Amino acid sequence: MSNADVEAGGPARPAPAATTGIKPPPGRYNMASNGNGVGSAPPYVAPSPFYYDNAAAHERHHWPWLMPLVVIANVAVFVAIMFYNNCPRSGGDCVGRGFLRRFSFQPLKENPLLGPSAATLQKYGALDWYKVVHGGQAWRLESCTWLHAGLIHLLANMVSLIFIGVRLEQQFGFLKVGLVYLVSGFGGSVLSVLFIRKGVSVGASGALFGLLGAMLSELITNWTIYTNRFAALANLIIIAAINLAIGILPHVDNFAHIGGFATGFLLGFVLLMQPQFGWLEQPFGSKSKSKYKAYQIILLLLALVLLAAGFAVGLVMVFRGENGNDHCSWCHYLTCVPTSSWKCDN
């Protein structure tokens, strides 16, 4: 959120005729090694009208180029994966085989999201606990965030990235938002591989949840410069809660969502802090107000400590081969809750 959007003390701005929506991040998918079904993407949830309104769009001075480039890169990676997947080579009942040829999708009973096989994803960088811990392939903690289980999964994630990432980049610039995106994706993968040992996991939604978490912490740390702050806070909390709740469906890697959200939330306190209200308006050379409030500095330091401790503990546990479920007997319910309609395996 920019100061111009809802800066305290300014004149009331008439409500815009139409508001732009934010699509919450869709799910990161955990595909069983035999390629069976995956979870569905979360629904669209519209934001409140004061958040990212069109009237202040002209006041954002950063030209967004990184997030569109990330979208293009994800699409290019998906096309390359489908090329190497080459479904007709296996002789199965490929979807779109007649006109897509080697780019055709795996049978729907194997992958209902219109994508490659789990074996192909595993070969080209999906998150796999055994390969990360015992195969010396730590690079999979980041590479898996550039892969997608299927065309539906890709479209849902990229639309969300355009709505969330581009707007944040307009406001804070490519460097800060790019760091939040990359580090959040990595953080989501660390938590995922710590708790999930069966199957492979792919998707950019850990990074997307990180952007959502950063939006929330940005509102908190820049609390004094906004009006309608409680409504904005409630709006973001509801969006995050809905999408995290959807992660309890089977075959959706909610640990990646939670890890990415927590990482982005802490990074927001560090990277997205803005000067307090009125500091910029002081005459040059005679600024009596400090640039940041004391609580902003405290939150920044606390976030840095938690980030360092979290990554240190998490990575040590991962590469020692420890199973997070041994230290938290109920945590498996965070990614799947068994019901009469489905079961949850390990």
TrEMBL record:
Entry membrane topology: Multi-pass membrane protein
InterPro entries: Peptidase_S54_rhomboid-like (IPR002610), Peptidase_S54_rhomboid_dom (IPR022764), Rhomboid-like_sf (IPR035952)
GO function term, MF aspect, one: serine-type peptidase activity
Feature: compositional bias, Low complexity: 8-21
Gene Ontology annotations for the cellular component aspect, listed alphabetically: cytoplasm; endomembrane system; membrane
Keyword set includes Protein biosynthesis: no
GO annotation terms (biological process): proteolysis
Intracellular or extracellular location(s): Membrane
Keyword set includes Phosphoprotein: no
Source organism, top-level taxon: Eukaryota
Transmembrane segments: 65-84, 146-166, 178-196, 202-223, 230-249, 255-273, 294-319
Peptidase S54 rhomboid domain sequence ranges: 136-273
Catalytic reactions on record: Cleaves type-1 transmembrane domains using a catalytic dyad composed of serine and histidine that are contributed by different transmembrane domains
Region annotated Disordered, chain positions: 1-33
EC numbers: 3.4.21.105
UniProt KW keywords: Hydrolase, Membrane, Protease, Serine protease, Transmembrane, Transmembrane helix
One family name in Pfam for this protein: Rhomboid
Primary residence: membrane
Family, as annotated: Belongs to the peptidase S54 family.
Function: Serine protease involved in intramembrane proteolysis.
Designated name of the protein: RHOMBOID-like protein
